[in-house]
Fold each of these.
Amino acid sequence: MKALLGKSTISIMAGLFLLLAAASAAKADTHAQIRQTCRADIEQYCRSAIGGGKEKMRSCIRENAPRFSRPCRDALRAAWSARAAQQARDTAQDAE
């Protein structure tokens, strides 16, 4: 397969792989930070959503976020902003 692909194509593919890996790692870091920062708030306000799946937990967090501690709200706000920015970049790429 290497013979079929030029060095530039292989470099581009490697670069894309590294970008995807970095984005995935950043997402995991963000989730870990939210879990750590918001653990007490989630246990207090979203106990019934624990183990109920992503959508149930997301819905509970959105509904109860105003009650969460300031550090938790800040972490959520940062994560939501990063997610919105990523969606905007994805949309712009799709439009190209």
Amino acid sequence: MALVGYQIEKDKIDDKIRQIQAQLKGKRLPLPSAAVETKPAGPKRVLSPAARRRIAAAQRKRWAEHRKRAAAAGKQKPE
């Protein structure tokens, strides 16, 4: 029974949408971002071992710099 009620409400909403579209004389409004379909993701990218090594080395360098700055900031605290 609830399903029938929802179907009637849906029909009323669809009619209202048609009326509004007729008033706009066929002007199409942009769809909300939630209704826009996105492209499916392509195949997963695979990095070469050399590229992974370069990325890992760069990350280690960034962490070393971070730790160096954190240690320097810890020593400068006034007592």
